[in-house]
Amino acid sequence: MKLILITAISDYQKAIQDVLKKIGVKHYSFHEVHGYTQPAKEGLESNWFGSESATTDSVLFHIFLEDSQCDALTEAVQTLNATLDSVSKVHVISLKIENHV
């Protein structure tokens, strides 16, 4: 089992929920959060949120997935990111769960 964290700008909330539904995720949690980026000299492309603003309205999803679903999620998010007409992308992090009750 893995803990999946997905973060993105809030505009992508519905698209992420559609991806989760498509791969068969029935239960998850999400929170509205404020993403923050320190002003950088590298340019907009290196900014996690793809915005010139220091704070960005964002969402954070928490999902527990069986290992077998993780590849499907990764592929679906890569496909989604390829369709987004923005510098900002959906980010997915996978953490292995050693024990759970």
Detailed description of the structure:
Helix 1 crosses helix 2 (67-83). The protein is globular. It has 101 residues and is an alpha+beta fold. The protein has a single domain (2-37, 54-96), classed as Alpha-Beta Plaits, CATH 3.30.70. The mean pLDDT is 86. The chain has helices at residues 13-22, 67-83, and strands at residues 2-9, 29-36, 55-65, 91-96. The relative contact order is 0.33.
Main beta-sheet annotation? 4 strands, antiparallel
Strand percentage lies at 25-35%
The radius of gyration computed from the alpha-carbon positions, rounded to a whole number of angstroms, is 14 Å
Overall CATH class: Alpha Beta
pLDDT < 50 stretches? none
Instruction: Give the number of domains.
Output: 1
Q: How many strand elements?
A: 4
CATH architecture descriptor name: 2-Layer Sandwich
What order do the strands of the largest sheet run in, or round the barrel if closed? 2-3-1-4
Q: How many angstroms does the end-to-end distance come to? A: 12 Å
Mean pLDDT: 86
- Could you say which structural class the secondary elements and strand pairing correspond to? alpha+beta
The percent of residues in helical segments reads: 25-40%
Question: Overall 3D geometry?
Answer: globular
Secondary-structure element order, N to C:
EHEEHE
The oligomerization state is: single chain
Under CATH, the topology can be stated as Alpha-Beta Plaits
How many helices? The count is 2
